[in-house]
Amino acid sequence: TVLRKSIYLRAAPATGWAYLTDPDKLAIWFHKPAMPLTDGPYEMFGVDSGDKLMWGEVLVAEPFTRLEYTFSIAPMDGSSSTVRFALREVAGGTELSLVHEGLPQGAEAFGLTLALDRGWDDHLGRMRADVHSD
Is the separation of the CB atoms in 54 and 71 below 8 Å? Predict the structure, then answer.
């Protein structure tokens, strides 16, 4: 199971990169890590609850072009998936692509797939709205 998303931002790739890696920017649209997502293990926490919501390890962090990390959440029962973001400069802004793969398989896991699919739509929509609010 692979989720693929793509949005356009009216901003430079450096701005998109900040929204993917900076804890304060991540807190606007996603969850907040204690440290920037640039190297090694990470944990992300609910902005309002403070609860640990996801964790993993940053695998690749190429500023302004590519970020890849493992992704685990409690409903995955200890398994891990991989999230890859790619930023590509386009006329007028940036194309931001996401590929989330390695998700649990089978009919019993489809509810999780649907929840993650909807979640990424919501999260990326909040990112785009905040980037475009300036």
Answer: yes
